[in-house]
Amino acid sequence: MTLSVWGPDHERVQVRIDGADHEMRQAADGWWHSDVTVPAGTDYAFLLGDDDTPLPDPRSAWQPHGVHGASRVYDHDAFTWSDQDWAGRSLAGSVIYELHIGTFTVGRTFDAAIERLDHLVDLGIDLVEVMPVNSFDGTAGWGYDGVLWGAVHEPYGGPDGFKRFVDACHARGLGVVLDVVYNHLGPSGAYLDRFGPYFAGQNDWGPGLNLDGSQSDEVRRYVLDNAMAWFEHFHVDALRLDAVHALADTRALPILEELSVETARMAEALGRPLTLIAESDLNDPRTVRPRSSHGLGMDAQWSDDLHHALHVRLTGETDGYYADFAAPDALTKTLRGAFFHDGTWSSFRGRTHGRPVDVEELPGTAFLAYVQNHDQIGNRATGDRISASVPPDLQACAAAIVLLGPYTPMVFMGEEWAAATPWQFFASFPDPELAEAVRTGRRREFGRHGWGESEVPDPMDPATVERSTLDWDELAGPEHRRMLDVYRSLIALRRRHPELRDPSLADLEVESAADGSWLVMHRGRFRVACRFGDEEPPVHGEVVLGLERVTVSTIEPASVS
């Protein structure tokens, strides 16, 4: 293959191939091209102008030497797939499982994760959501500080390792959702701006992309091509788009809408369903409204409001953004309409927030529900899970609402057995100054929220990663097995009975006590009753599943086990 790179403002670009420098020729569109043919496995880097600093390819598919090192030519056609009969996995009716490759197993690789996939099949999972796997500086991290979006993190197993993981998932009937980050780049190895006008401004996490300024067409193409490559070359079934509210884009055709158009085209070309799931803080139903209804065309978005309402009901915590969710009807309202803040006052923001969801138009599958996720655990100072603060019977209540409600349910790794391991924030930047800045900033941030510095784990300490790694030996413990049985039973009920995965929000009825101490969801002929306090909820008909605080019953005497 020959090598190309976009560098519109440079007068000279060279490519260093196995130590030898070669001049590149410039085209009218700002792209530079090499006439040298290079085979797969060849290392290369670019030199801009008179600077002798070799830089990795912004579109690199392989970074075996890390984010500061040379790129390596990767041949996607060389991998042998075994998923030729894979027809895809649609979002509707599915249960998602979120995991982080670096802490899912002590092996911290794709191959080690493959060894645990049968556990997910046994649990009843349909889609595996993998937190970001693109290259970032260091060995350990959440993945949201990535800088080379097309290159799979080498310590996890590189591009071949990820393909083996996807192939193994498909062999077991599991679809794969990949978490991608287009709203910012990490603080180390972000060389894009040296090549061209990729950056425009900053957000809370780092430099943002130039999506709507001068010369932004190629920047947008960078995003779109990256997304399509995950679908085409890595066979993923869905993308989860991180914090889309941080995308600064004033174009008439927003990048998200453009992405939905290209995803639909790719789905047609590949002959299988492809899905886009957004994380958005805007509480704007236009995110998931179809393009035909003047929406952005995302298939679904995360529903933090439902998490917050559940969390407050379970724990009683009302600090920060939890304050508004202390209202007794918060959980009921959010179950019925996806958003609690739907044009209402948000004390956390100091303004009104959100817009109502038209429940006649949008199905519950357009919103992801979860008891916890990586953010809602990892962004707590000590990374404590819900099982560290509430008893198992209350966690079962939350699980029943999520798994038997109208929304697309998602389980965070280890939640299904009430894992005792925390999930804390960690990183491993080799630069001592950057490492200290992250360490100090983390402690300062949580100090403002009432935690002492000694309570905040050092994100750079390898012990923080060790603590955050799942302990699969816990499954031998009876208390963990009991929770696993609860999750299996709830997912099995959902899978067997269409009423328990009915996405209609318009048809959902919710009864609740005035003080929020109990709640009953009407799901067709089924009733899902959850007791949060001492008062018993009304139980209708024949009991199908009876737990200490959860009762699933049917109003028709029938064999529905």
Supply database-style keywords.
alpha/beta; 561 residues; 26 strands; 5-stranded antiparallel beta sheet; globular
Q: Give a short account of the largest sheet.
A: 8 strands, parallel, barrel
How many beta-strand elements? Answer: 26
Mean pLDDT: 95
Total number of helices: 14
The structure class reads: alpha/beta
Task: Give Rg in angstroms.
Answer: 24 Å
**Global outline:** globular
Q: Strands of the biggest beta sheet: in what spatial order?
A: 8-9-12-15-16-17-20-21
**Distance separating the two termini:** 59 Å
Percentage of helical residues?
25-40%
User: Uncertain runs with pLDDT below 50, 5 residues or more?
Assistant: none
Into which percentage range does the β-strand content fall?
A: 15-25%
Give the SSE map.
Elements: E1 4-6, E2 13-17, E3 20-23, E4 25-26, E5 31-33, E6 43-48, E7 71-72, E8 96-99, H1 101-104, H2 110-114, H3 117-123, E9 127-130, E10 134-135, E11 148-152, H4 158-171, E12 175-180, H5 192-195, E13 199-202, E14 207-209, H6 216-234, E15 238-241, H7 255-270, E16 275-278, E17 300-302, H8 304-315, H9 330-337, E18 344-346, E19 351-353, E20 367-370, H10 374-378, H11 392-404, E21 408-412, H12 432-447, H13 462-467, H14 478-496, E22 509-512, E23 518-523, E24 526-531, E25 542-546, E26 550-554
Parallel strand pairs: 8-9, 8-21, 9-12, 12-15, 15-16, 16-17, 17-20, 20-21
Antiparallel strand pairs: 1-5, 2-3, 2-6, 4-5, 6-7, 10-11, 13-14, 18-19, 22-23, 23-24, 24-26, 25-26
Detailed description of the structure:
By secondary structure, the chain is an alpha/beta fold. The protein is built from 14 helices and 26 strands. The protein has helices at residues 101-104, 110-114, 117-123, 158-171, 192-195, 216-234, 255-270, 304-315, 330-337, 374-378, 392-404, 432-447, 462-467, 478-496; strands spanning 4-6, 13-17, 20-23, 25-26, 31-33, 43-48, 71-72, 96-99, 127-130, 134-135, 148-152, 175-180, 199-202, 207-209, 238-241, 275-278, 300-302, 344-346, 351-353, 367-370, 408-412, 509-512, 518-523, 526-531, 542-546, 550-554. The strands form seven sheets. Strands 8-9-12-15-16-17-20-21 form an eight-stranded parallel β-barrel, surrounded by four helices. It is globular and about 80 Å long.
